[in-house]
């Protein structure tokens, strides 16, 4: 990760990478829930 005019230490760089991944991946399950994908999957598997 590069920040303009700043040097980031490796632990902080890794922490920022993990936070960025979380921010990018968290909306996926929320969108699937809003679209009803989970309810459809439950209906298919419950018989």
From TrEMBL:
Domain EccD-like transmembrane residues, every copy:
2-44
Spell out the InterPro entries in the cross-references. Answer: EccD_transm
Can you name this protein?
Answer: EccD-like transmembrane domain-containing protein
